[in-house]
Write a structure and sequence with these properties.
CATH superfamily of the largest domain in chain A: Mur-like, catalytic domain
Radius of gyration of chain A: 23 Å
Order of helices and strands of chain B: EHEEHHEEEEEEEEEHHH
Distance between the termini of chain A: 63 Å
Structural class of chain B: alpha/beta
Number of strands of chain A: 17
Number of helices of chain B: 6
Number of domains of chain A: 2
Structural class of chain A: alpha/beta
Oligomer: heterodimer
Largest sheet of chain B: 6 strands, mixed
Distance between the termini of chain B: 48 Å
Low-confidence stretches of chain A: none
Mean pLDDT of chain B: 97
Strand order of the largest sheet of chain B: 2-1-3-4-12-11
Number of helices of chain A: 15
Strand content of chain A: 15-25%
CATH class of the largest domain in chain A: Alpha Beta
Shape of chain A: globular
CATH architecture of the largest domain in chain A: 3-Layer(aba) Sandwich
């Protein structure tokens, strides 16, 4: 019965995929899978010709999509065939959709490799039906707290999956990810060397996290990115390993190069965050014996499709627009750090909003108190504009607490992009940075188009 | 001088609640007070109860609570004296479980708390997140606006609620929010709560000073809290719209 259901589900899934493809190639990343799961509850378990040694899951708070895309690009550059949920659908229905598209009518997978970005919360459900032998854990941070609560909530969900049959690829410099070393059959560590962009945080108000193994304080010797760097537990001795195979070293930001496992690589993206993705990508590629020259070639062609930075011309101003995806401190901190790199005079418009992920919607801005603002404040900001209907004042208060003078902050309790642009008109400063959630961008785009139409 | 202990800042570090400490320092300064903050970083470190007015335990992961309970048990006598003297302990979110009678975890295990607050904590299967608006039981005119990310529900065994819920979940949907015994205050309120509600922070600081015979005559002008008051109005409007949709 299960087999019949699977075949019916597969045919319907393929029909849905075919139809969606005619309507729009960019849509329907989950749709076929959703239909298939309505018919067959263990749908992906029934596919044939899968080499589980060549199935990789990438999970963790930050960096899943980027690393996933990087690995796929490398495998494809080497002429390998890959099934993937590259479109970013990381639940079981997204994976099912990808498998429907890459299988024969009888349910045989047509590709050699399967590389999937997997949502941390659904990893168990996915693993039960598709027991990958390789699981990459990028990092586990505070994130989307209305869903995830505390990092340990997610930690326990991943822990339920990791077993002695699995090779884990873990970030050597992120305590929670690294601690999964205790539960896997084989552990591959990756990391990056202290470099020109590494930093220390030893201030009175700087805080870290509890050790994932013994709950005592973790100390960082230095950080390569926020909350990731060489660490040691103050009690149990849990720490970053000293000698690891996949270690990006001799990082040269002027030449855009680094070395890993004795090979020099050139990189397109030079933020330290990407170096972790490169190191993990190399680790996976080496596992599958991808030639180094192919890995290198793939790095030069890699495009970060998830990039959320754009420059928009508005009257005589240039707006550098940073879109943030999630309400987590790392995402906001990266955006603030990006602004702070530019030391010329500028305006910063920041539109943190109430959270509308699912109901009840709510007004969380507390993650802002986990961020550091010193660099930002010292980067010559003439004016801060805080806007949003419900939390503009809370956003402004974060800046006040960070030490910004009140008269430098303008609060607009609105989400109308027109109001924000009108406010910008009042100032001579031409260099503008704008930070908002992803969806606000669409409103801005619509407004810009409307303006252009009116002009012409 | 206001003496504050910031308890386990690295271990209890979840929802930007270091802001609560910033708020205590800022409001104390506006009241003309100097603040002396001591960090207790490790479980083996002892708290100097005699020279402390407020101990701040921010929200942390449930898994660390047994370690903290164990550490505090080693100073049980001093802790109880401190509490009976009416000195302040502020506990945010799941950290309230350290003062509860017991906490039941969803895996079926449980751990005993210090039993200062007559309540039981029960870990939830799923997280609940929302806004939280309540008034204080001791002063119904004092409103608190906050958020709530609930991983444990709280069942009060006696009449020890800190506040009455206007909007949100509070302890367990039964209109009570938090708990209070003497000046041991447990609240589910995030925000950070002392940042968003400086009028409450002011009240806590003044009482803490008064407790040691140093009455603070000065009051902070409303203008100083303009941002926070406007924030509260915006969020009230937001909640009102939510209610209409519910």
């Amino acid at each position: 019965m299960e087999k019949i259901k699977f075949h019916v589900a597969l045919i319907i899934g393929k029909l849905v995929a075919f139809t969606v493809n005619i309507i729009s190639k960019d849509r329907g990343t989950n749709l076929s899978g959703r239909y298939a799961y309505k018919i067959c509850k263990n749908f992906i378990k029934n596919f044939k010709k899968i080499d589980y040694d060549k199935v990789v899951f990438i999970t963790g708070t930050n960096g899943k999509s980027t690393t996933n895309n990087m690995i796929i690009n490398a495998l494809k550059t080497a002429g390998k065939t890959v099934t993937t949920n590259i479109e970013g659908a990381n639940l079981i229905t997204g994976i099912a959709t990808a498998m429907i598209k890459n299988s024969t009518i009888t349910g045989k997978i047509k590709t050699e490799y399967m590389i999937f970005e997997t949502d941390e919360r659904y990893l168990k459900k996915i693993y039960e039906q598709l027991p990958a032998k390789n699981i990459c854990i990028t990092n586990l941070q505070k994130d989307q707290v209305q869903r995830n609560g505390e990092p340990d909530f997610i930690y326990q969900k991943i822990k339920e999956v990791i077993n002695k049959d699995i090779t884990v690829y873990v970030n050597n410099e992120e305590p929670r990810a690294k601690s999964f070393e205790d539960f896997a059959g084989k552990v591959v560590y990756y990391g990056i060397e202290k470099n020109d962009k590494s930093f220390e945080k030893n201030g009175f108000y700087d805080v870290t996290l509890p050790c994932p193994k013994c709950n005592n304080k973790i100390k960082f010797k230095y950080y390569n990115i926020d909350n990731v760097g060489k660490f040691k537990c103050t009690n149990c001795g849990f720490k970053s390993e000293n000698n690891i195979e996949f270690f990006a070293k001799n990082i040269n930001y002027e030449e855009n190069t680094f070395e890993c496992d004795h090979i020099k690589y050139t990189m397109n993206y030079t933020q330290p965050f990407f170096l972790y993705n490169y190191a993990l990508c190399i680790a996976i590629c080496k596992r599958f014996k991808i030639p180094e020259e192919k890995i290198q070639e793939s790095f030069t062609t890699f495009k970060n499709i998830g990039g959320r930075l754009e420059t928009i011309k508005y009257k005589d101003k240039e707006i550098k627009y940073i879109r943030i995806k999630q309400e987590n401190p790392e995402t906001l901190q990266s955006a603030l750090d990006y602004v702070a790199q530019d030391k010329s005079n500028k305006i910063l418009a920041i539109g943190l909003e109430e959270l509308k992920d699912f109901k009840p919607y709510y007004t969380n801005t507390f993650y802002g108190f986990d961020c550091d603002y010193d660099e930002l404040i010292n980067s010559n900001i003439d004016k801060y504009i805080c806007f949003s209907e419900a939390v503009a004042y809370d956003s402004a208060n974060i800046l006040v607490y960070a030490g910004v003078e009140k008269d430098k902050i303008e609060v607009l309790p609105t989400e109308e992009i027109e109001d924000v642009l009108n406010e910008l008109d009042k100032y001579d400063t031409k260099n503008v940075y704008l930070i908002t959630w992803l969806h606000a961008y669409e409103a801005l785009e619509r407004y810009m188009k409307k303006m252009q139409t009116t002009k012409s | 001088m206001l003496n504050v202990v910031w308890a386990y800042p690295d271990i209890l570090n979840l929802h930007g609640d270091r802001g609560n400490l910033f708020a205590i320092e800022r409001i104390a300064k506006l009241l003309g007070l100097e603040t002396n903050v001591k960090k207790i970083e490790n479980y083996k470190d002892k708290i100097d109860f005699k020279n402390t007015d407020i101990i701040l335990f921010n929200v942390g992961e449930i898994k660390v609570m047994p370690n903290i309970i164990h550490a505090l048990n080693s100073q049980e006598r001093e802790l109880k004296e401190y509490i009976e003297e009416g000195k302040f302990i502020i506990l945010i979110g799941a950290t309230g479980s350290i003062m509860a009678k017991e906490t039941l975890r969803k895996d079926g295990t449980k751990f005993e708390g210090l039993g200062i607050l007559d309540m039981q904590c029960i870990e939830r299967e799923n997280v609940y997140g929302n806004d939280l608006h309540f008034t204080l039981k001791e002063n119904e005119n004092l409103e608190i606006m906050a958020n709530q990310i609930q991983l444990i529900d709280t069942k009060l065994n006696s009449d020890i609620a800190l506040g009455k819920v206007i909007y949100g979940m509070g302890n367990n949907y039964e209109q009570t929010e938090g708990a209070k015994y003497k000046n041991v205050i447990f609240t589910n309120a995030l925000g950070p709560v002392l940042v968003k509600n400086p009028w409450y922070t002011e009240k806590i600081i003044k009482t803490a000073m008064e407790n040691k015979g140093e009455k603070v005559e000065e009051s902070i002008s409303k203008e100083q809290f303009e941002i926070e008051m406007k924030s509260m109005e915006c969020i009230k409007k937001f909640i009102e719209n939510k209610r209409k949709e519910e």
